[in-house]
């Protein structure tokens, strides 16, 4: 029998650090796909992660390979290349520095923009139908930059939003949206939040107990608590990414808050969107109070100003960039 090329969708995970390996593990445990490629500039780490992950494949019988850039030291140990990652159906971008204690997401930007640029150059050309899931932070700005750099249409770049995208507080009770950012500058849309279908604002306890402030600060500070205690977050984001990959591959058309480019705001920001096999579909703009809309506009303005600083970015070839 002539061996047939695998038709199984391929998932490439760029960055084999804490988040990248947790994403791969979550995907394996949930059998979301059967063909994975892992690329990291540190080829030794990528190789080690692949060996470790392979020991878990008895659960889902997936194939996992490490990819290397031809000039990198580990190239001889793998047959896959970074360019093969560009031909994957879903590309999960986790390569990037993580937030240091006390560092804001914006401070990460310069460091991680260089990594994004490097990765997109090395994996190019990107398959025209690929969906790029951006996880590295600051995710909104990097999504905006990836849009300019990758050449993919906006519907095929998203991400991440986060495990706290629906606030995740009073977990089973409060159904509320966070838009804009998923960190320091998030805008919680309390005006359309509900508890069992009833507007949250109609609950007397809500105002009396200062619940808004408590919930807002709990969600904003949560990530900093995790970083303070264990150095990095991994499991929440890994679970979210595996769920998104599943939604894309199974065309589930779920509605989730994700970072996307919005024409209305002319910016990449977190909004509820439909996610299916073609990436992001319809954006569902939430009803917001005037104050919430103002906060979001302020966030968008700041976000646009940061993106403008990167206007020199013109294409996927690194030689096109001005330093
Ligand atoms: N969106 C979210 O909700 C969310 C949650 C957690 C972490 N993050 C972000 O994910 C990113 C990764 O976090 P982490 O804890 O895994 O960090 P990490 O340091 O453990 O891993 C990052 C990996 O990227 C690799 N890398 C660096 N430069 C590279 C390059 N040019 N090409 C290929 N690989 C390269 C490193 O070698 C390293 O293995 C960070 O930016 C972090 O802030 C986002």
Automatic annotation (TrEMBL):
Binding-site positions, NAD(+): 15-20, 40, 112, 135-137
Superkingdom of source: Eukaryota
Catalytic residues (UniProt): 182
Stretches assigned to the Lactate/malate dehydrogenase N-terminal domain: 10-156
Pfam families linked to this entry: Ldh_1_C, Ldh_1_N
Stretches that traverse the bilayer: 12-33
Segments forming domain Lactate/malate dehydrogenase C-terminal: 166-301
GO terms classed as biological process: lactate metabolic process
SUPFAM superfamilies referenced in this protein's UniProt entry, alphabetically: LDH C-terminal domain-like, NAD(P)-binding Rossmann-fold domains
GO function terms (MF aspect): L-lactate dehydrogenase (NAD+) activity
UniProt feature coiled coil, ranges: none
Keywords of the record: Membrane, NAD, Oxidoreductase, Transmembrane, Transmembrane helix
InterPro entries: L-lactate/malate_DH, Lactate/malate_DH_C, Lactate/malate_DH_N, Lactate_DH/Glyco_Ohase_4_C, NAD(P)-bd_dom_sf
Family statement: Belongs to the LDH/MDH superfamily.
Protein's UniProt name: L-lactate dehydrogenase
């Amino acid at each position: 029998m002539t061996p047939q090329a695998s038709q199984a969708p391929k998932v490439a995970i760029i960055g084999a650090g804490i988040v990248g390996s947790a994403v791969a593990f979550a995907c394996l445990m949930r059998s979301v796909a059967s063909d994975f490629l892992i690329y990291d500039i540190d080829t030794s780490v990528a190789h080690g992660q692949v060996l470790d992950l392979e020991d878990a494949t008895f659960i889902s019988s997936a194939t996992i390979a490490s990819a290397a850039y031809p000039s990198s030291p580990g190239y001889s140990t793998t047959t896959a290349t970074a360019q093969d990652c560009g031909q994957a159906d879903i590309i999960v971008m986790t390569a990037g520095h993580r937030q240091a204690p006390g560092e804001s997401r914006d401070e990460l930007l310069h460091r991680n923009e260089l990594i994004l640029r490097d990765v997109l150059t090395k994996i190019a050309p990107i398959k025209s139908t690929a969906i790029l899931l951006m996880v590295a932070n600051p995710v909104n700005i990097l999504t905006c930059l990836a849009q300019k750099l990758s050449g993919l249409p906006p519907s095929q770049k998203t991400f991440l939003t986060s495990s706290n995208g629906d606030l995740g507080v009073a977990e089973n009770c409060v159904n509320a949206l966070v838009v804009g950012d998923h960190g320091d500058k998030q805008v919680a849309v309390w005006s359309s939040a509900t508890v069992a279908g009833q507007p949250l604002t109609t609950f007397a306890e809500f105002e009396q107990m200062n619940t808004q402030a408590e919930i807002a600060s709990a969600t904003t500070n949560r990530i900093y608590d995790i970083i303070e205690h264990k150095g990095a977050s991994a499991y929440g984001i890994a679970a979210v990414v595996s769920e998104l990959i599943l939604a894309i591959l199974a065309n589930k058309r779920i509605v989730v808050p994700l970072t996307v480019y919005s024409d209305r705001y002319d910016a990449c920001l977190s909004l509820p969107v439909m996610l299916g096999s073609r990436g992001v579909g319809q954006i569902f703009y939430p009803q917001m109070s005037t104050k919430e809309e103002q906060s979001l506009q302020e966030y968008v303005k700041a976000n646009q100003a940061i993106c403008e600083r990167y206007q020199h970015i013109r294409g996927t070839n690194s030689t096109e960039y001005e330093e």
